[in-house]
């Protein structure tokens, strides 16, 4: 019943999203007429080579209208983004409920039966669809936006992806990509599944062994302070694996769709670092350890 209810709610939200997209287009068409008037007024002023009180008054009115139009369109777009976030949340809840009930889909098969290439594709899609933080003027990016860490009292939710420090078969410790199964408030410990071996081994870990992954991408053009800077030490997911390794930021993203370029620590190279490799914002987190000597 829960799955059916979620499907119904998602269908309703998709319909509301469709209506908001139509409203956005209508608002944009309406504002284009006013923007054209602004352009024509400036052209007439250049032709006459003068700025009369009439033109000043007219332009002030046109720009006031343009500002109101832009704010109205922005409001509709923010409502649409909220709908998208709500849909994604419901899809995630449905995925978790289905998994607990033992029901799997083609887009989320059991990890133990999933081909390596399929898992890598899913991780790439997760990085690409991570929402971009779009704040209001003067609004600071929230925790878990880009490089901004979670609050000290933050508890990751069931289904959230995290970097988890676990003991490997050989006894060494490593940071892996994991999914939160539960959190025990009495013991302050998480239960997590290795994203690469779901159902094979479950890890019980303290909070200090868990680093929540970003929930929003930071926009380099508006919020550069929410990104890791050049030469900063991080943990980054090594391409085509599900393990995090220490790395230095080589180049931060320049555009919202860009990845980080990082240099992984690698003793097989003369300078101790790999050539630059691209890693998505989704899979770069602060390193809790000190920089190597």
Would you kindly provide a written description of the structure presented here, covering whatever features stand out?
It comes from Triplophysa tibetana. This is SAGA-associated factor 29. Pfam families: SGF29_Tudor (PF07039). This protein is of the alpha+beta class and 293 residues long. Among the domains are: 1-108; 224-286, SH3 type barrels, CATH 2.30.30. 37% of the residues lie in helices and 20% in strands. Strands 1, 2, 3, 4, 5, 6, 7, 8, 9 and 10 form a ten-stranded antiparallel sheet that branches. The chain is globular and about 80 Å long.
Draw up the topology in text.
Blueprint: H1 2-48, H2 53-100, H3 116-128, E1 161-167, E2 173-184, E3 189-194, E4 202-206, E5 210-212, E6 233-237, E7 243-251, E8 260-264, E9 277-279, E10 284-286
Antiparallel strand pairs: 1-2, 1-5, 2-3, 2-7, 3-4, 6-7, 6-10, 7-8, 8-9
